[in-house]
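Researcher: Here's the sequence for the chain we discussed earlier.
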Amino acid sequence: MAARTYPPYLREKARQLRRERKLAIDELAESLALPRTTIYYWVRGVLAVRTNDTYFRARLQGCGSIV
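Model: Thanks. This is the structure I predict for it:
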């Protein structure tokens, strides 16, 4: 099976959305109509922590459990 190639602008758009809107992998895949695995490899170095998310706030503050 041959590898699928996507236009470079899609990769850059995915990275931009990840940085600016802090979208999750699933959200990016849905909005760009691309496979999750492709999105994962494109944005794996781009941090997108949602600070208003209870789980991530607890993790950033060093709490081991969420109450």
